Amino acid sequence: MNIILLSGGSGQRLWPLSNGVRSKQFIRIFRNEDGELESMLARVYRQIISVDGEVGVTIATSKKQVSSIKNQLGDRVNICVEPCRRDTFPAICLAAVCLHDEQGVKEDEAVVVCPVDPYVEDSYFEALKELSRMAETGNANLSLLGIEPTYPSEKYGYIIPVSGDRVSRVDTFKEKPDVAAAEKYIAKGALWNGGVFAFRLGYLLRRAHEVIPFTDYQDLSARYEELEKISFDYAVAEREKRIQVLRYNGGWKDLGTWNTFTEAMEEPVLGRAILNEACENTNVVNELNIPILCMGCRNMVVAASSDGILVSDKEQSSYIKPFVEQMEQQVMYAEKSWGSFTVLDVQEDSLTIKIVLLPGHGLYYHSHDHRDEVWTVMSGRGRAVIDGIEREVAPGDVISMPAGCRHTVSAETELKIIEVQLGENITVEDKHKYPL
Amino acid sequence: MNIILLSGGSGQRLWPLSNGVRSKQFIRIFRNEDGELESMLARVYRQIISVDGEVGVTIATSKKQVSSIKNQLGDRVNICVEPCRRDTFPAICLAAVCLHDEQGVKEDEAVVVCPVDPYVEDSYFEALKELSRMAETGNANLSLLGIEPTYPSEKYGYIIPVSGDRVSRVDTFKEKPDVAAAEKYIAKGALWNGGVFAFRLGYLLRRAHEVIPFTDYQDLSARYEELEKISFDYAVAEREKRIQVLRYNGGWKDLGTWNTFTEAMEEPVLGRAILNEACENTNVVNELNIPILCMGCRNMVVAASSDGILVSDKEQSSYIKPFVEQMEQQVMYAEKSWGSFTVLDVQEDSLTIKIVLLPGHGLYYHSHDHRDEVWTVMSGRGRAVIDGIEREVAPGDVISMPAGCRHTVSAETELKIIEVQLGENITVEDKHKYPL
C-alpha cells in the first residue's frame, strides 16, 4: 500500500500543548504497549506498519513540521514539503507527483490519502488496505472510506451512498448540515466523510495536469505558490461520477478539540498533578516541572506547558481558537531538528533559554548583531566553534560570545546548555548564518 | 498606642502563593490608593499608621519571616523573633517583655495584641485605639474586641457578654460551637472572638512571671524552647474574671482560605489571564510569566506561582491543607532579606536559579563542597569577592566558581544574575559561611 498522510494544523485548538510550531499530532499523550508515551503521529505510523509491513508512507506537510516528524519517526518515512500553505488539492497533487517522480510509484498503483490524526483502532488501517485494493482493481475512479455515524454531528461532511451495502456507489455529498438534516441523512444510510480517498496514481496525475500546468515534481514545487487554494473535495470528489464508498464501523475519533482529545487519554492525568476526590471527569496534562492541584473540578480540562495554562470546562474548550489568537504569546518551547529549546526567563534586556542538543546534531554557525550570549554547559559533551576556533565543551564550561561573534556547538552526547542572551530588543530575526 | 502584631502561619492554606517560607500576609494582592499592589502586612501597617501616627508597632514572629517583614516595611517596625514555634501565650509574653526591656514601654501603658492578617476597614483600628484607652484607664484587666457576627459560623470562638451594651463585662467564652449552638449564642448577643486583646503591660508581665521563671528579655528568649505550648485564651483569658469587651460592627474578614481571600480581591484577575464570558465568580492570581486562559469556570480560584498551580472550586479550597502537606515541593521562589531567588530549571545534576539582589544588599560570603557554580550577570551593577579578590560586576560578566571557592556578590543597583549550579545531589545544606 502507498499512503499519503496529510499533516497540517496550526495547533490552536489544543493550546497550550500545541502552538504555532507544535501541532497536536506531535504531542506525546498516548501510551503504547510498552507503556511509553507516544504522539498521534507515532501511534498512527505504528498502526499502519502493523497492518502492512510493506507500506510506503509519505507525509505531506509544511516546512515547520519537518523537524518534529524526523524527531519522532526518523528517516523511515518520505516527507513531501509544501513550499507554502495551499489547500488539500494542491497538497495531494504535490505528494502524488512526488510519489511518481521521486519514489517510482507506477500510474496503475493505488494511493490512499488519509489525515495524520485519526484516533482509531487497527481495523481502520485494515479498511484502508481494502480500500487500496478496491481502488487498484475496481471500476471506480475514487474510493472513499465512510465512517458509520454515531450521532447527527454538525461537524462533518456526509457521504450519501446509493445503497446500504458494505461497498456502494456514492450518490452525492452533503457539506456540514444542521442536526435535523444530519438526522435525515443518517436515516437514509449516510456516512461521515473522514477525509480518506484512494485512487490509482495515474488518475490523480491526470486531474492535476488538467488544473495545474507543470512538468515534474521540481517544477510543481517551484510553482506551488501560484496555485489556487482549493480543496480535494471541491476540485475532484464533487466533480467525479465514478465514486465508491467502503463502510467502516469501527472506533473512530476526530481529536480536534480538548473535549474529544481528553476522551482518548487512557489515564486522567499526564505529568505532575493531584486531583482530590471531589473532582469528576477531569483531565490534566502537565508538561511543567511544578505540581498542579485540582479540587472539586467537574468536567474540566487543565493543561499546562511552557506556553501557558488552560483551565476550561470541557464543552467550552471547543471555543478556544479566538482566545489563543489574541494572546500572541512568544513561543516558550519548541522542538527543533537538533533538539529543543525552552525559554526560562524573560527580562527587559535579557532572555534565558535552556537548549537541549541531540547527539550528532548541532546549531547553525551564526552570529547576532545586537546581543551578547553566554553559554553554561549543564551536561553532555560536544564541540563548539567560536570565531573559527574549535574547542571541546563539557559540563561547567562557560563560553561568552559578544555581538558579532560567530558561534556554533554540536553534541557528541546529549548536550544541555543554559544560554543567557543580553541586549536591547532581543528578536529571533537578529541572526546571520554562515557556512562552517 | 503600643501594638503587637502576631505574624504566624505556615501558609499552606493559600498554596501555591504561600509556602513554607512565604506566609499569606506577605502576598501582594491588594491595591493601595496609588494603584500599587500591597500585601496584607503592608495594608494593615498603613491602616494602623493612618489612625495613629504615634503608634509603636512590634511584630512577633518567627525567624523565617524576618526577611519578608524587613523587605516590606523596612526598619519602621520593631521585630520580636521567637527562637522557635510555641503557642500565643509564650509569643505574647516574649513580645511584652521585649516592649518593657528593649523599647522602654512602662508597666502602666496599654498594649494591644492583634493578628497581622485581619482584612478590615480603618474603623477597626479606630476601635483598637479605643480599646487601648479602655485598657489603660478602666478597671478591667483584659479588654477584648468582639466582632458582631454576620452568620452562625463554626470557625470562630464566641465571647458571651453580660449585656448588649457597646462596652460590656464578659460573662464567658465558648470555643468553636456547631451552627445550632452558634445561633443560640448570637440570639443572646454573643460576639466573635477576633483574637484581639488589650491590657496594661504590667498585668501581662505579672501573668508571665507566674507561669514562666525568667529574669529579662534575653533570659526569656534563651529559655524559650523549654516553654509549654499554651494559648493566650487558655493561659490568661479563661482564667481572668475582670474582662470587658468592645463591640465592633464594621467590616471584618478572616482571609484564611482561598474562598475568603478571593472575596477581598478588588479585581478578579491579578497577573496574566483571560477569562471568557462563560466564566462566573472566578478569581485568578498568576505570578508566572505565561498566560492563563479560563473558559467556563464557575466559582473557581486559579492560582499559579513558581511553586505550583491550584485549580479549585472555591468551597473545596478550604480542604487544601493535607494535599499541600503531601506535595513536599522544593521551594521554587523565596523572598530573602537580600532580595529573592527563583528556581528556573531542575536537572539531575544541575539547577538553574535567578537571583535578584536589592541595592545595598549582598549574599553571605560562602562556599560549597560538592558543586560548582557559574554566575551570568543579566542587569545591574555591584561588587563580587571571589576567593578574597574583589571585582566589579556588570551585565554580561561571567564568574565561574568551582567547588570550594569562597564567593559573594553585593548590589549597587538592583542586580539580576543567572546562577547555574553543577554537581551531584545539590542541596541547600552544602554551604559554609565565612566572615568577609
Question: What's this, in brief?
Answer:
The structure is a homodimer of 436-residue chains. Chain A has 436 residues and is an alpha+beta fold. In chain A, 22% of the residues lie in helices and 36% in strands.
How many helices of chain A? The count is: 10
What does the oligomeric state look like here?
Answer: homodimer
Net shape of chain A:
globular
Taking all residues together, what is the mean pLDDT of chain A? 92
Largest sheet report of chain A: 6 strands, antiparallel
Please give the radius of gyration of chain A in angstroms: 24 Å
Strand element count of chain A: 30
Helix/strand-derived category of chain A reads: alpha+beta
Largest interface: A-B, 63 and 63 residues
Helix content of chain A: 10-25%
For the biggest β-sheet of chain A, the strand order reads 20-21-22-29-24-27
What does this entry look like structurally?
The structure is a homodimer of 436-residue chains. With 436 residues, chain A is α+β, with helices and mostly antiparallel strands. The first copy, chain A, is built from 10 helices and 30 strands. Chain A has helices at 40-51, 66-73, 88-101, 122-137, 179-187, 201-211, 217-223, 232-235, 258-263, 321-327, and strands spanning 2-7, 28-31, 37-39, 56-62, 78-82, 110-115, 118-120, 142-147, 158-161, 167-174, 191-200, 243-248, 252-254, 269-270, 273-275, 283-286, 292-295, 300-305, 308-313, 333-336, 339-347, 350-357, 365-367, 372-379, 382-386, 389-393, 398-401, 407-411, 415-422, 432-434. The first copy, chain A, has a 6-stranded antiparallel beta sheet with strand order 20-21-22-29-24-27. Chain A has a 5-stranded mixed barrel with strand order 8-11-9-10-12. In chain A, strands 14-16-18-19 form a 4-stranded mixed beta sheet. The two termini of chain A are 42 Å apart. The model of chain A has no long low-confidence stretch (mean pLDDT 92). At the A-B interface, strand 17, strand 18, strand 19, helix 10 and strand 21 of A face strand 17, strand 18, strand 19, helix 10 and strand 21 of B.
